[in-house]
């Protein structure tokens, strides 16, 4: 067996694969957070619960005979709609207040949502079967690559880059960015800014639900699946720069890889390495790696 730095190659590449998978979910979730914060200036602590809701919606759809591929479309729409309702009924009232109020509200909503699902479904995971088309894997010689995990990495990267392109390189994205800085000017072009804000929040929530659907066959469906993950994702957003789209993508995948490599070379630090990186970045560059400095 080939060894790299004294580590068996299969173990090393296996952890790299695991890091890329985790990085895919970090990137998707932090991207949704960055979109919401960049547009609404709301720190959406409900994001982890909405990620969990996406997995549960996929599970419910499967019980009615609607499989994985349709769930990838329907779950983000359904959970995104619940986000629209939350924005219209609750978050809308907080835009003129300090960020802390939005954080407290969304944190409370996350606890309520998780509590409801835990009450009805317990804390043990519910299995969600993998789509037939993505079962099996490829023997690459130095490692075995499961088809589904390869799909998760590629698809999440496509979604992330498409979102970045739309926001940073299209007219719609220009309107979105302008609406955060000068909504009065954007209204002069006949654009309904409140509706744009609502749909943006729904889109960010939909990204979390999409990640939940993709995670269901790997991690099972659990009411608490987003509770621990959201802390890591917030660290990713802080490192990348609050509101930075590209920062969320690059940092999400990059930290996933760093976390995977740490599990190989220094397992004891694998659960804290992301927070260590966050502390170092905040000391050197408080705005984050891709954030705008004042």
Write a structural description.
It is a single chain. 70% of the residues lie in helices and 3% in strands. It has a single domain (3-123, 145-284), classed as ABC transporter involved in vitamin B12 uptake, BtuC (Orthogonal Bundle), CATH 1.10.3470. The protein has 294 residues and is mainly alpha-helical. The protein contains 11 helices and 4 strands. Helix 2 packs across helix 3. The model has no long low-confidence stretch (mean pLDDT 89). The strands form 2 sheets. A two-stranded antiparallel sheet has the order 1-2. The termini are far apart.
Please report which band the strand proportion falls in: under 5%, 5-15%, 15-25%, 25-35%, 35-45% or over 45%. Answer: under 5%
- SS class: mainly alpha
Globally, the shape reads: globular
Total helical elements: 11
Examine the secondary-structure arrangement and name the CATH architecture: Orthogonal Bundle
- Give me the Rg, rounded: 19 Å
Largest sheet: 2 strands, antiparallel
Could you state the order of secondary-structure elements as H and E? Answer: EEHHHHEEHHHHHHH
Identify the CATH class. Answer: Mainly Alpha
Low-confidence stretches: none
Distance between the termini: 52 Å
**Mean pLDDT rating:** 89
Strand line-up across the major sheet: 1-2
Helical percent range?
over 70%
- Give the total of beta strands: 4
CATH topology: ABC transporter involved in vitamin B12 uptake, BtuC
A few lines on this structure:
With 294 residues, the chain is mainly alpha-helical. It has eleven helices and four strands; from the N terminus they run E-E-H-H-H-H-E-E-H-H-H-H-H-H-H. It has a two-stranded antiparallel sheet.
């Amino acid at each position: 067996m080939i060894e790299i730095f004294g580590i068996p190659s299969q173990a090393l590449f296996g952890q790299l694969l695991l890091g890329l998978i985790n990085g895919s979910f970090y990137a998707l979730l932090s991207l949704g957070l960055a979109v919401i914060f960049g547009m609404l200036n709301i720190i959406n602590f409900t994001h982890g619960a909405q990620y969990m809701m996406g997995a549960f919606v996929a599970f419910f759809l499967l019980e009615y005979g609607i499989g994985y591929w349709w769930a990838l479309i329907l779950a983000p729409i359904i959970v995104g709609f619940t986000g629209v309702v939350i924005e219209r009924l609750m978050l809308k009232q907080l835009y003129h207040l300090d960020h802390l109020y939005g954080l407290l509200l969304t944190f409370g909503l996350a606890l309520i949502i998780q509590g409801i699902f835990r009450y009805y479904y317990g804390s043990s995971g519910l299995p969600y079967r993998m789509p037939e088309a993505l079962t099996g894997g490829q023997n690459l010689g130095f490692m075995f690559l499961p088809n589904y995990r390869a799909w998760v990495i590629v698809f999440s990267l496509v979604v992330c880059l498409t979102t970045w392109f739309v926001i940073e390189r299209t007219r719609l994205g220009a309107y979105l960015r302008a609406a955060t800085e000068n909504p009065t000017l954007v209204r002069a072009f006949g654009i309904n800014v409140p509706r744009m804000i609502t749909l943006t929040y729904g889109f960010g929530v939909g990204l979390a639900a999409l990640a939940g659907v993709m995670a269901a066959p790997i991690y099972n469906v659990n009411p608490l699946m987003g509770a621990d993950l959201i802390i890591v994702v917030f660290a990713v957003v802080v490192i990348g720069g609050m509101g930075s789209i590209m920062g969320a993508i690059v940092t999400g995948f990059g930290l996933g890889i760093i976390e995977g490599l740490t599990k190989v070379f220094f397992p004891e630090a694998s659960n804290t390495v992301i927070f260590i990186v966050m502390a170092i970045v905040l000391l050197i560059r408080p705005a984050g790696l891709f954030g705008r400095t004042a």
